[in-house]
Amino acid sequence: MNFFSRLSSHLFNIGSHRQWQTAIAIVALTMSMGYLQPNSAYAQAKNAPQDATEWIRRGRQLWQRNDIAGAIAAYQQASQLEPKNSKILTSIGFLMTQQSNYSGAIAALERATKLDANNAKAFNALGFVYVRIKDYPKAINAYQRAISLDRQNIDAYNSVGFLLTEQRNYQEAIKIYRQAIAVAPKDAQAYLNLGYVLKLAGDSRGAFEVYQQADRIAPYNADVLVAVGDLFAEQNKTDEAIAKYKRALEINLRHPQANLSMSKIWQSQGKYAEAIAALRRAAPLRGNSSPIQRAIADLYMQQGSLSGAIVAYRQIIDELPSDAMAHLNLGKILARQGRNTEARKALEAAEKLFNQQGNVDGLSQARKALAEL
Q1: Closest CA to 293 of 269, 320, 271, 274
Q2: CA 4, chain centre distance (Å)
Q3: Among candidates 359, 302, 365, 364, which has minimal Cα distance to 329?
Q4: CA distance 324 to 346
Q5: Of all residues in the chain, what percent are helix, strand and coil, respectively (each to 5)?
Q6: Which segments carry the TPR repeats (predicted)?
Q7: Residue range 148-163: average pLDDT?
Q8: pLDDT at residue 214 is higher than 80
Q9: Residues 335, 348 contacting (CB under 8 angstroms)
Q10: Are 224 and 211 in contact (CB under 8 A)?
Q11: From CA 265, how far away is CA 154, in angstroms rounded?
């Protein structure tokens, strides 16, 4: 079995505030709980196999069925039979990371690397675990060891680059991303990562050249088109920026950052309906859409469309009932429409929430609005 899914880093700055939305998606590592001891049902079962290969086969089947605890128990039995098998320990470490048992995972993975100093997968997994517990120096060391063992491991390069950038070590990050491009010259993400760090380092010209390279090798990559469009927008080349954003939207109509960028341009041109439509397309189909709804509410207020703003604020409150500012703004708008009963309810909710949060300024605003009803 391939014990690790393909690593990937998405380290690309996008969004109306030009924030770097990152994620080091090295492996699908999410669940919880601990480490089963060898006295599990497997160990106690009659006719338990004495062949490590059979335990590995069972562990793989349980893993595929997402029975993580059962898979760990099976691999532990295999490890008892073959205590010097680095790959088995790597699988245990990987599985324990899926349970968020990071201390147990580190112990298993470090033992795996001591048994086999050439186990690149174990070093990759160690890097991920150290990132999760925010031990960045150890994470960088683990990923660099993985790179030394596998020069083609593009994702380890990207992970090191991300960590160096988080530490504002831009020059070293630039070096590692250039190495990644040398290894994988067709990987558009590496160009995006490099371009982003060049921008952070103040080299906008260099970033533009890198993004143009990415555009040539991946002309249908919406992220690349948005990156180039953003640079045009920063240079006040609005027509060129719009052309890139529109191309991105032809590829993916709901591309969040293309829509956010287009919305910003439409808003600057007073085209509020177009701006709101773009924001609606940018809203996630699942998850928290409150930042988008807040932007929509602001645009409605700029137009003087109170009813539209009310709908947006109600949606924010549905998603985030503890958002005191949304309650406050909703109450103020309802008061302007003379809907005092609804307004009072919203403002009282805001007052209560601001008080709980210790927000003195917000509490003062809520009480003032209530007094004015």
Answers
A1: 320
A2: 19
A3: 365
A4: 9
A5: 70, 5, 25
A6: 52-85, 86-119, 120-153, 154-187, 188-221, 222-255
A7: 94
A8: yes
A9: no
A10: yes
A11: 35
State the Cα–Cα distance between residues 179 and 146, nearest whole angstrom: 14
Separation CA 12–CA 16 (nearest Å): 13
Angle between helices 272-282 and 290-303 (to 10 degrees): 170
Kind and range of the H or E element at 303? helix 290-303
Contact 95, 84 (CB under 8 A): no
Name 306's Cβ contacts closer than 8 Å, sequence gap at least 6. 300, 333, 336, 337
Residue (of 183, 181, 259, 261) closest to 218 by Cα position: 181
Structure tokens given for 91: 């699988």
Least confident of 21-30, 214-223, 241-250, 315-324: 21-30
Q: How confident is the model at residue 50 (pLDDT cuts 50, 70, 90)?
A: confident
The residue among 251, 250, 311 whose CA lies nearest residue 276 is 311
- Name the CATH topology of 283-373: 1.25.40
Q: Which one, of 154, 126, 119, lies nearest residue 140 by Cα?
A: 126
pLDDT digit string, tens, across residues 156-169: 999 999 999 999 99
Q: At what angle do helices 188-200 and 204-217 cross, to 10 degrees?
A: 170
Distance (Å, whole) CA 12 – CA 44: 50
Sign of the Cα pseudo-torsion (69, 74, 79, 80, in order): positive
C-alpha distances out from residue 367 to 134, 322, 331, 352, 355, Å? 42, 17, 11, 10, 11
**What is the predicted pLDDT for the residue at 237?**
95
Q: What is the pLDDT of residue 349?
A: 97
Q: HEC states along 103-137?
A: HHHHHHHHHHHHHCCCCHHHHHHHHHHHHHCCCHH
Q: What SS3 class is residue 10?
A: strand
At 259-303, the pLDDT tens digits run 999 999 999 999 999 999 999 999 988 878 889 999 999 999 998
Residues 3 and 19: their CA atoms lie apart, in Å, by 33
